[in-house]
C-alpha cells in the first residue's frame, strides 16, 4: 500500500551520496505534482533529496497519463523509474537512480537478484545486482550508447569551461580541464546555475568539470539540471568517461570516476556503456503531508 492514514510510504537511498526519496506506487495512484516533489526533497522541511524515484509499472503510468506511451523497448509490466529532479522537473534518465531503484525493487520483494528490466523515459536500462545484503548493494547498469553531439561551453560560478556535449538519454556538457588536479577541482566553485548555449541545449544541461585521465582514473564534480550541485551523477559520470577518453585519444576503455560521494566504474565499448557502483538504502517510513 502506498498511501495510508499515516501518509505516503517512502524509502530513502543514495548512490555515492546522490540521494533519492523512493516512492513505491505500483499502480501510480499518487499525483506526483511539482509541489509534492519539492516538499519531499526539501532538506529542512521535508525528507531531503536530490530527486524522487517513483516505483510504478510502465503500464500504470501510461494508464494514468503520466507517460504518453511506452518508450521503445519498455513493456507494460516492466518496473519504471519515474524520475523527478528536486525542483519538480522531469528528467529522462538518472544513472545513480537506476542502481538505487533496482536495489529498492529487490529489497521490497518486487524483483529477485539478477538482471532486472528497468524502464526509463530514455528506454530500457537493464540492471544487474552484483551483490546485495539488504541495505547495501553493488549494481551494474547498462547505460546504452552515449551520443556525441559536438563541443560547447558553459560559464559556471564565474569561470568558462569548454566541453563535449554528450547525450546519455539526458543532456550533458562534460568539461575535461587540461592541467586540473584533484585538489584544485575540490576548491572550484560549482554551486551557481550554469550559463550555457540555450540554442545548443534547448532542454537545459548537466555540467561536469573533470581532471584529465591519469592511470585510468578521473576526478569529477557536477552541477545538475534541476538539482544544483550534487555529490555524484551517474549519467554525468559516463559522459565524463567519454570526454576523458576522447581527450586521451581513445573511444573505448574502462574509467574509474571519483566524485565527492565516492567512486564509480565505467566501461565503454563500441556499442554501449555500463556503470557499476554502490547503492545504499538508509531509511523508510511515512511522509505525512
Ligand atoms: N543524478 C542523475 C541525473 C539526474 C537527472 C539530471 N539532473 C537531469 O535533469 O538530467 C544521475 O545519476 O544520472
Automatic annotation (TrEMBL):
It is an enzyme of class 5 (isomerase). This is Diaminopimelate epimerase. The active site is at residues 94, 233. Catalyzes the stereoinversion of LL-2,6-diaminopimelate (L,L-DAP) to meso-diaminopimelate (meso-DAP), a precursor of L-lysine and an essential component of the bacterial peptidoglycan. PANTHER family: DIAMINOPIMELATE EPIMERASE, DIAMINOPIMELATE EPIMERASE, CHLOROPLASTIC. The record marks 172, 224 as: Could be important to modulate the pK values of the two catalytic cysteine residues. Pathway: Amino-acid biosynthesis; L-lysine biosynthesis via DAP pathway; DL-2,6-diaminopimelate from LL-2,6-diaminopimelate: step 1/1. Belongs to the diaminopimelate epimerase family. It catalyses: (2S,6S)-2,6-diaminopimelate = meso-2,6-diaminopimelate. Keywords: Amino-acid biosynthesis, Cytoplasm, Isomerase, Lysine biosynthesis.
Amino acid at each position: 500500500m502506498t498511501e495510508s492514514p499515516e501518509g505516503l510510504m517512502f524509502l530513502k537511498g543514495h548512490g555515492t551520496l546522490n540521494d533519492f526519496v523512493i516512492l513505491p506506487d505500483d499502480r501510480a495512484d499518487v499525483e506526483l505534482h511539482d509541489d509534492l516533489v519539492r516538499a519531499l526533497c526539501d532538506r529542512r522541511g521535508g525528507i531531503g533529496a536530490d530527486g524522487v524515484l517513483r516505483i510504478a509499472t510502465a503500464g500504470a503510468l501510461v494508464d494514468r497519463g503520466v507517460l504518453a506511451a511506452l518508450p521503445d523497448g519498455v513493456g507494460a509490466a516492466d518496473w519504471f523509474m519515474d524520475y523527478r529532479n528536486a525542483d519538480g522537473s522531469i528528467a529522462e534518465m538518472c544513472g545513480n537512480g537506476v542502481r538505487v531503484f533496482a536495489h529498492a525493487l529487490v529489497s521490497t520483494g518486487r524483483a529477485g537478484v539478477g538482471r532486472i528490466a528497468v524502464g526509463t523515459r530514455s528506454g530500457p536500462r537493464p540492471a544487474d545486482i552484483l551483490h546485495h545484503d539488504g541495505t547495501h548493494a553493488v549494481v551494474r547498469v547498462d547505460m546504452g550508447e552515449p551520443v556525441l553531439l559536438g563541443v560547447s561551453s558553459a560559464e559556471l560560478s564565474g569561470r568558462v569551461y569548454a566541453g563535449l556535449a554528450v547525450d546519455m538519454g539526458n543532456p550533458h556538457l562534460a568539461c575535461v580541464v587540461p592541467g586540473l588536479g584533484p585538489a584544485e577541482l575540490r576548491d572550484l566553485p560549482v554551486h551557481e546555475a550554469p550559463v550555457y548555449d540555450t540554442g545548443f541545449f534547448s532542454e537545459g544541461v548537466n555540467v561536469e568539470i573533470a581532471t584529465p585521465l591519469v592511470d585510468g582514473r578521473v576526478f569529477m564534480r557536477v552541477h545538475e539540471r534541476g538539482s544544483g550541485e550534487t555529490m555524484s551523477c551517474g549519467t554525468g559520470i559516463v559522459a565524463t568517461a567519454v570526454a576523458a577518453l576522447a581527450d586521451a585519444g581513445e573511444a573505448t576503455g574502462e574509467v574509474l570516476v571519483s566524485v565527492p560521494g565516492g567512486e564509480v566504474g565505467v566501461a565503454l565499448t563500441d556499442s554501449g556503456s555500463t556503470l557499476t557502483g554502490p547503492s545504499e538504502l538508509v531509511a523508510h517510513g511515512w511522509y505525512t503531508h
